[in-house]
Amino acid sequence: MGKIPEYNRLKKLKRIDYWWIEIDDLNNSMGRKIPFDAFKYPIRGLGDVKLNLNSIQPIKDIDRALFNDMWSIHDKRNFNKLEQMISKYLKKWKCTDKFDPPEFPSIIIDLKYPKDIIELETIEELVNQVDYIGYEWTESERLIDSKGNMYSTEYLNFGHPVGVVVPNKIDGSITNEELIHLIGNNKLNFKIID
After folding, report:
1. Is pLDDT above 90 for 172?
2. Interatomic CA distance for residues 120 and 77, integer angstroms
3. In Å, how far are 6, 22, 184 from 142, measured between CA atoms?
4. 156-193: string of b/e by CB count within 10 Å (b at 16+)?
5. Residues 6+ apart with CB under 8 A from 174
6. DSSP result, 11-64
7. 167 and 132 in contact (C-beta within 8 Å)?
8. Using an 8 Å Cβ cutoff, are 161 and 135 in contact?
């Protein structure tokens, strides 16, 4: 019986796919850290794991406010805060201080499997389906808006089935001709406005 906690801990350690780590820029040391599995699900109960900063690759630059929001949910499991957080991040599709939000209609396309396309007529369709879409969202997927902008995203999983897809940045642009070539046909209702 005494070995069950250690067995459960080892199972958790094997699930880790990546870490979010708070870095102290002054002395290049680690602060708070959150492990995630391959489904971008936070793994609780491993805050005391010792990590060697030099062995962690790659280190991703994480917005401090985003880290604090994620930590507050991961640490406290405050479901009232969770509801507020989801509302906060969904609003980032409608306005952002980094770039103009996407114009609809838009499509979601996986650059690895470009024939599987989700067409969205309004921002509400994206927002209302965000958790269903988000849980399957991969790093190769992009939202392409009707101006031809390609948005990369960050998926925040607050604990399945609750999560949000946040617009991250505009990775580039695409024309109608390039899009048709990418998907291999032109039987798409969606058109990019030049």
Report:
1. yes
2. 32
3. 40, 27, 17
4. bbbeeebbbbbbbebeeebeeeebeeebeeeeeebebe
5. 144, 148, 150, 182, 192
6. HHHHH--EEEEEEETTTTEEEEEEEE-TTS-B--S-TT----GGG--PPPP--H
7. no
8. yes
Q: What is the residue type of 174?
A: I
The tokens describing 184, both together, are: 């291999």
Q: What is the average pLDDT across 36-47? A: 82
Residue given tokens 């390609």 in the structure block: 150
Those residues with Cβ within 8 angstroms of residue 50's Cβ, 6 or more apart along the chain or in another chain: none
- Lowest-pLDDT range, 5-19, 58-72, 170-184? 58-72
Using left for φ > 0, alpha for ψ between -120 and 50, and beta otherwise, residue 177 falls in alpha
pLDDT at 59 over 60: no
Q: How many Cβ atoms are within 10 Å of 68's Cβ, its own excluded?
A: 11
